[in-house]
Amino acid sequence: MTSSSDRSTAVSVDGTKTYEIRTYGCQMNVHDSERLSGLLEEAGYVKAPKGSDGDADVVVFNTCAVRENADNKLYGNLGRLAPMKTTRPGMQIAVGGCLAQKDRETIVSKAPWVDVVFGTHNIGKLPVLLERARVQEEAQIEIAESLEAFPSTLPTRRESAYAAWVSISVGCNNTCTFCIVPALRGKEEDRRPGDILAEIEALVAEGVSEITLLGQNVNAYGSDLGDREAFSKLLRACGQIEGLERVRFTSPHPRDFTDDVIAAMAETPNVMPQLHMPMQSGSDTILRAMRRSYRQERFLGIIEKVRAAIPHAAISTDIIVGFPGETEEDFEQTMHAVREARFANAFTFQYSKRPGTPAADMDGQIPKEVVQERYMRLVALQEEISWAENKKQVGRTLEVMVAEGEGRKDGATDRLSGRAPDNRLVHFTKPEEDVRPGDVVTVEITYAAPHHLLAEGPVTSVRRTRAGDAWEKRTTAAAAKPAGVLLGLPKIGVPEPLPAAEVPACGSH
Known about the structure:
Its cofactor is [4Fe-4S] cluster. This is tRNA-2-methylthio-N(6)-dimethylallyladenosine synthase. Helix 9 (about 230-240) links the parallel strand 10 and strand 11 (about 245-250). The chain has a 7-stranded mixed β-sheet with strand order 19-20-17-16-15-18-21. The chain has a 6-stranded parallel β-sheet with strand order 2-1-3-4-5-6, sandwiched between helices. The chain has 16 helices and 21 strands. With about 500 residues, it is α/β, with parallel strands linked by helices.
């Protein structure tokens, strides 16, 4: 084993400083971390080798405040870094994201070895705050209360060469009693359609073939612009971008899910037959307590309309079990809605208190053992439905976009993995022809499990794509320059001498 000083020399060669970002929470946080990586690399840092586990010059925690134990997880991780920091002169720790926005000074009082605390509205300040902390030798806490600049103008180091997140709005105007996000990310602010489309076109020019439109309430897009049909218009405009093969979006709200959006999904060929729409509960009583502005009948009506317009659509959802006041009858209403909706999959959660939300102080908090028992019943039902719905895919011929890192057993099984148009995970037999992430293969589904499909026969066809070319170019660059700069991927283990980080070619984020 190497000593702490040996490790420091290993990852900080030639005076180049390394960084590591640990991300918790939703897709918005994942995309924010891509921006934080871009900012740090523009400032001269390089990504630490995979598996560094805190052994970097700068460690950034991009936090989430959604779960009850989010702060415990953060302080536990910070505590594990404290001794490393004492033996590594110049090491800095930064905490950002939703929990930082919420707790601010508390973080530094509980973990005084933290150098920087920044919020959800000012992630662009991270390099400046790190430098200020270094010069002044004291913690820097800067939490903006409102958005300083739309984050998509920031440099971005994207994790994928073939698929990309594109933010269309930030913030949320809803007041769900279980959610603290609007208080931390602010009111909804929409980007101009022209800016969004220009970013997508630039990404496609770089080789990206799949984009996911992101918003806290993505289909409310337009409320800030005064256009109720802005989201459906945006979907149709994406259909006009040559070379853009797949368009997805997450997460919509049933309140804003209008018929024009369903029509745009059905009539725009590159908008994928997939919908993730959080239901949260099937009980009208609980939905009212949650301040969700729809009821079970409205939700199931949307599902019916989507399936009528897009018969092969895969629909997924989020469900909370054990919300305060939930009776057995309320829970049975959720089970009924799940049977009726027949979701391809569901992300199910046991209710946990979010400090600062109205629900945390509500009467009728459900005992943990009751919540657990209901949760297990719901999971069992959804597993049964997911498996039955996946079995309907057997015999179908699907176009699968080859993915990177989706199949944990691919090496052992001599298979590759990717996503069908409806976002189902497909494992398929590796063809003799070379295929790369971003390429598209045609396969016949031969077997279904609850959470994936298998195509055990030979691949029918392979289509090499510009997205695959982009992946190959980046991988080749990584082999030549294992520094982890904007278009590179770091090797595992001790890297070769690191060149200075490059300024990103495109600052569209």
